[in-house]
Structure formats: C-alpha cells, structure tokens
Design a protein that fits this description.
Elements: E1 8-9, H1 11-18, H2 22-28, H3 30-36, E2 49-50, H4 51-59, E3 77-78, H5 80-87, H6 91-100, E4 106-108, E5 111-115, H7 116-125, H8 135-151, H9 160-167, H10 171-185
Antiparallel strand pairs: 1-2, 3-5, 4-5
Helix pairs in contact: 1-2, 5-6, 8-10, 9-10
Length: 188
C-alpha cells in the first residue's frame, strides 16, 4: 500500500538523486539503504521507497517515520493483491476487472495501483458475474434447499434430471450443481 499523499521513489530514481549510475549505486549504497529503509511494497519485484524517507537518508538527516496506517484513507493506493484481498477475489480477477473496465487504477512505475475508494466502490457494486454470489452458487443454494425439503419429506427425491430441466443446463453441469448442493447441504 502507498499511503495517501506519500510520494514514492524507485531505486533508479534514488541512484539518480545520489548522482551515480544504478549499478554503482546498487553495489555501493543500496545495501545500507535497504537496511535502514523498508520499501512501501516489500512483496513486489519493483521496490518503492517513501520519498521523504529517502530524501532525509540521502541528506544524512533523521529519517521521518512512515504513517502508522491505523486509519485507512480513501486515497490510499492498493496493489492488485491488496485490492483482491479487499474484494475477496484473486489478483488475476482484479487484473481482469481492469481489462474489462470495472476498475481503472493508476500506473506508477510500471505497476497498477487502485485507490481504496475505487476498490470499495467496486465491492459495493456487487457485479452479478464476478461477485461472491455467482449464478452457479445461487443455483447450488437453491438446490440445497430442495434437498432439505426432500429430507423433511416435503418434496420427492431430487435428481440431476430435475436440475437440468429446471435450469436448462447440460447434463454434466446439472450433475455438478447437484453435487455442490449436496456438499452445501451436508448430504454427500
């Protein structure tokens, strides 16, 4: 996460600020910087560092503390993995949302970042195709209710043919839906 209002720098920009080529900077200066400063995005390949901390470090001044992050701000920037965690989906789904236009994000140093505000709005939108309640899950929940009614004696036995006819599914999809419903109802 990049906290709201905190600009970042790459190691290339840090080397330029120090006035030396990147390879020289990485050999001479990078190990000391990496011991003193934590990147904003430690799990990403391209490490980003807080600009105010880097500036203070290069000037030999005390390094300011990064925001504690106890209070999320709507303008905090989240990477794909953080956005995915907030949405309850996989990072690949977040990238698909970007491709399809559900999310826009901002590219910073070659990485796509999403504001917390945009991610929260996407979560609140409850897209029918990509949310936690897909058509398959809704069908399985409905068929699970049929199985519960069957167990209570209020309905004849549920078959894959019933599911196929009711939903207009292929035979294999109907069998899968029935299996999911049985698992959900605990009647494997």
């Amino acid at each position: 996460m990049i906290p709201q209002g905190r600009p970042v720098m790459t190691e290339i920009e840090i080397a330029e600020s120090a006035g030396m080529p990147l390879t020289t900077w990485r050999r001479r200066e990078a190990p000391a910087l990496r011991q003193r400063l934590q990147p904003v995005n430690p799990r990403d390949r391209l490490k980003l560092y807080d600009r105010s901390q880097v500036t203070a470090y290069l000037a030999g001044k005390p390094i300011p503390a990064r925001p504690s992050g106890t209070e999320p701000h709507p303008d905090d920037l989240l990477n794909a993995a953080e956005a995915a965690a907030a949405l309850g989906v996989e990072p690949s789904t977040v990238r698909a949302y970007t491709t399809e236009g559900y999310l826009t994000g901002t590219e910073i140093h070659g990485t796509r970042w999403y504001t917390r505000r945009e991610v929260d709005a996407r979560a609140a939108a409850g897209d029918q195709r990509h949310g936690p309640r897909t058509a398959t899950e809704r069908r399985a929940a409905e068929v699970a209710q049929w199985l519960a009614d069957e167990a209570a004696g209020h309905r004849p036995p549920v078959t894959a043919a019933d599911v196929q006819t009711h939903y207009g599914l292929a035979e294999r999809a109907a069998r899968q839906t029935l299996a999911q419903a049985r698992k959900r109802a605990g009647t494997n």
